[in-house]
């Protein structure tokens, strides 16, 4: 066989082998280009020699030779997504780019985050990633004053069908005593071997603080008491909480009481439960601390709405 025949075989055989290899890399690729369905794209191979060759996942979006320093892809569809690699004639890799179809209908990914305290080092987040197959997800939280934050990378296999992804992001350093001037921007990206998704949400921490439930709840016949959640920012004089106490009386009637102290006195109470929120800023209520039950009871949840 002469060299030319070998080259032809190289281009016929390698792309076929390529598709049997694991379709998505273990790490988020360094170079990737999301395009919209039916877009065009030009890939450049900046080699010291103009004598180059491309390894492509499919010829479907190409109408040119694979021996050119620029490669024009047109009318891109899912058939031509994948890894485009440029090699010199002696097979040294010059560049390698993932071409992916961007899903423009999913720019939000239902990103939802909260913090259990102003001083918490983590944002607890979830995102809805409506794609299946092997997929990579990465997320980060950045704030303009601290530009350098690293990505949290996650990998899911086809066996994991769960679309809701939960993750904790470390929060860029900021001072909980000061008014937050710039929002924290949470960015989530996801990809398979052919698809790409992107979502972003901006948050002021005061809007997403949800305290943990009150702790050490104790009830006797005449009073109930509780303590601040241990995760809450200290000192509590600077970050006071407001408590809501839900009482059920012996005659089965119920009542709600707002309380800023950590105890209250009562009579004829059968059950009590308590939750909390920031006193100065209308944060969400915490979940209820487990009800303290002295005899069988269940609360009417609708009175707390
Ligand atoms: C995304 O969030 C919106 C609004 O919060 C909700 O109506 C919708 O059901 C969510 N979608 C999914 C798939 O969770
Ligand atoms: C935060 O990260 C996003 C996504 O990488 C980037 O577009 C944005 O410019 C960053 N913002 C700041 C303030 O660093
Ligand atoms: C961000 O971090 C990377 C690696 O940790 C570093 O190479 C880069 O210089 C940093 N950029 C800034 C603006 O601090
Ligand atoms: C996030 O952090 C919280 C508290 O630090 C922890 O309870 C939770 O399990 C963590 N979630 C994930 C997905 O790691
Ligand atoms: C109930 O608890 C409070 C505070 O812990 C205590 O002062 C009170 O004496 C107790 N009452 C009874 C009847 O045990
Ligand atoms: C908090 O909510 C209450 C009742 O919903 C309202 O009266 C009050 O003005 C709100 N305060 C702030 C700071 O938004």
From TrEMBL:
<dbReference type="InterPro" id="IPR007110">
    <property type="entry name" value="Ig-like_dom"/>
</dbReference>
<keyword id="KW-1015">Disulfide bond</keyword>
<dbReference type="InterPro" id="IPR013783">
    <property type="entry name" value="Ig-like_fold"/>
</dbReference>
<keyword id="KW-0325">Glycoprotein</keyword>
<dbReference type="InterPro" id="IPR036116">
    <property type="entry name" value="FN3_sf"/>
</dbReference>
<dbReference type="InterPro" id="IPR036179">
    <property type="entry name" value="Ig-like_dom_sf"/>
</dbReference>
<protein>
    <recommendedName>
        <fullName>Ig-like domain-containing protein</fullName>
    </recommendedName>
</protein>
<feature type="domain" description="Ig-like">
    <location>
        <begin position="22"/>
        <end position="97"/>
    </location>
</feature>
<keyword id="KW-0732">Signal</keyword>
<keyword id="KW-0393">Immunoglobulin domain</keyword>
<feature type="signal peptide">
    <location>
        <begin position="1"/>
        <end position="26"/>
    </location>
</feature>
<dbReference type="InterPro" id="IPR050676">
    <property type="entry name" value="IL-12"/>
</dbReference>
